[in-house]
Specification:
The chain is of the alpha/beta class. The protein has two domains: 18-259, Vaccinia Virus protein VP39 (Rossmann fold, 3-Layer(aba) Sandwich), CATH 3.40.50.150; 261-300. It contains eight helices and 13 strands. It has an eleven-stranded mixed β-sheet with strand order 8-9-5-4-1-2-3-13-12-11-10, with helices on both faces. A hairpin with a 2-residue loop joins strand 10 (271-273) and strand 11. It is globular and about 60 Å long. The structure holds S-adenosylmethionine (SAM). S-adenosylmethionine binds next to loops.
């Protein structure tokens, strides 16, 4: 029997204070504003079913209100619980705790996907991109944000020999455990290998510098950033990519919410029994806890 592939390491946000510590206490209004500008430029304004991968506490979920249904996926149950408090329980917002490397969905059920501030935690980029591609319909937009190793600060530090790693080299750099910076050309190459066509890229966050953010009004910085995004100068700490899935994948639209799911371990269909989803093929059972589908581990 073939050995199961080792599971890639996961950056676990379970129980973390990401929302209060990273976004609120550190005043990242500027970053939030310019990311929304880029997202609005790249994501088609409406569609049927959007996958928000690594949704966290739902910081950006209100950008997707015009989509008929949004599926928020995150490995952290506690982040999803917070999102659920905000967006409520309904057919429009579905909360799914799952690993991005093993998505619990049938092929071709999403006609749009976003992954913002998440891939920098991924040790196996080809694997996660292939998995995302699997669950998308053909020609579906995928908006991916990635941390850019070829940013001005890294180039400067490298030139004055204050930094060992080369920002022009294609290989990802793990600058802190489970935090990677990527070369834009590496991401483009891996997207294409996974079955995506890259359509457009925007450099974002030109002014992510403490002193500037402290002394200049956020409105001014955000307006300037908005203009500079059009320059195509890929030297910012963050890059937004608009890709589209190619013709290869399945196309299985369904209106039944439970019908989108498949066993993350085997891909087998699942049927609902009360507050569980069950695979007839393997007997594996997955819990639905207070409205959140939990695919992190099967029930004993
Ligand atoms: C920096 S946060 C970004 C959250 C949100 N996208 C935002 O921009 O505010 C990264 C998120 O990715 C999630 N994550 C990391 N690895 C994951 C994996 N393998 N599968 C699913 N989610 C993952 C974490 O739980 C966390 O909520």
């Amino acid at each position: 029997m073939p050995k199961p592939e080792p599971r890639p390491r996961i950056c676990d946000y379970e129980g973390s204070n990401y929302r209060t510590e990273f976004w609120e206490r550190k005043d990242r209004d500027y970053e939030d504003r310019v990311e929304r500008i880029a997202l609005r430029r790249l994501l088609p304004p409406n569609g049927q079913r959007l996958l928000e991968l690594g949704a966290g506490f739902g910081r950006l979920t209100n950008e997707y209100y015009t989509y008929k249904q949004v599926i928020l996926v995150d490995y952290s149950l506690s982040q999803l619980q917070y999102a659920q408090e905000n967006f409520g329980r309904s057919d429009r917002f579905i909360y799914v705790a799952a690993d991005a490397y093993k998505l619990p969905f049938r092929p071709g059920v999403f006609d749009a996907a976003t992954m913002i501030r998440v891939i920098h935690h991924m040790t196996d980029v080809p694997r996660v991109l292939t998995e995302i591609r699997r669950v998308m319909t053909p020609n579906a937009p995928f908006i991916l944000e990635h941390a850019n190793k070829q940013n001005i600060k890294a180039i400067f530090r490298y030139l004055i020999k204050k930094q060992g790693w080369n920002p022009f080299d294609l290989a990802p750099v793990e600058f802190v455990e489970l935090n990677f910076d990527f070369h834009p050309a590496y991401i483009t190459r891996e997207l294409s290998r996974a079955g995506f066509v890259v359509r457009r890229r925007l450099p974002v966050s030109f002014f992510r510098v403490g002193a500037l953010k402290e002394h200049l009004p956020t409105d001014v910085l955000a307006s300037l950033d908005s203009l500079l995004q059009y320059t195509g100068l890929m030297v910012t700490p963050s890059i937004f990519v608009q890709a589209a899935s190619d013709q290869r994948s399945a196309f299985s639209t369904t209106d039944d919410e439970d019908d989108i799911f498949a066993c993350p371990e085997t891909g087998a269909p699942l049927h609902r029994e009360g507050d569980t989803l069950v695979s007839k093929a393997t007997g594996l059972r997955w819990a639905i806890r207070d409205g959140i589908y939990d695919f992190k581990a099967p029930l004993e």
